[in-house]
Design a protein that fits this description.
This protein is an alpha/beta fold and about 270 residues long. The chain folds into two domains: about 170 residues, Rossmann fold, CATH 3.40.50.300; about 80 residues, no CATH class. The protein has ten helices and ten strands. The two termini are about 30 Å apart.
Length: about 270
Amino acid sequence: MSILQIRGISKRYAGLRALDDVHLAVQPGSVHAIIGPNGAGKSTLLNCLVGRVTPDEGEVRFDGLSLLGLEPHEISQAGVARMFQTPEIFGELSLLDNVLIPALARADGSYAFKAWSRVDDRTEVIERAEAMLDQVGLADHRQGHAAALSRGDKRRLGLAMCLVQSPRLLLLDEPTAGMSRADTEQTVELLQRLAGGVTTVIIEHDMQVVFTLASRISVMAQGRVIAEGDPAAIRGDERVQQAYLGGMGGKSGKSAPGGGAGAAAEQRP
């Protein structure tokens, strides 16, 4: 049975149909990639899953629970964590404090302010936050200000802030954007270690990353899912080739999915 079910989701902005009757099912423990050209509706779809956008039609269920109408923090407490395309971090705080904020919220089971609770009394939570920074390769900078990080390191910090919540569903919006190849490989290795333990939905422009991680891929164009299947099926799908190379936002001469990381990076789904 699917852990995430998206049925008939549509969203309009004035005359623009950002999402058009989207259906998608994600299996427990899988890495499910969503790819497509710019403007395909991928980020809007993720926003519907975390309560930032209310769709005009359709339903979203996570492990049987309807997510529509819930506040973002309620969705987070249900076990859904999202890393945004632009990482939402606290620049004036240290890396450790950034990870402690969601860690403490998760531990307390709410986002209520507890004036009588001292952070340094929460040894277990602090140790978990430090372990997450170590997992993403930022432990040596844990006392540094988050604002001083490179773009790629900010994304890794955002990933640590998600993982410290022990989510059952992890939503990643371009997790390797702005990273060096070495950092990208480290992030891919981390996500591979997580595979099976946490269900992951990933939007990613680097096709090498997609085909390395994903067990199933959905392709979006113009607000609709135009193709879905395992990586082998997607590589040769003519509709996918058209979405990238034809009249749906692609440009002649660019690499199609599977054409190599360097060329694929030019295609930012």
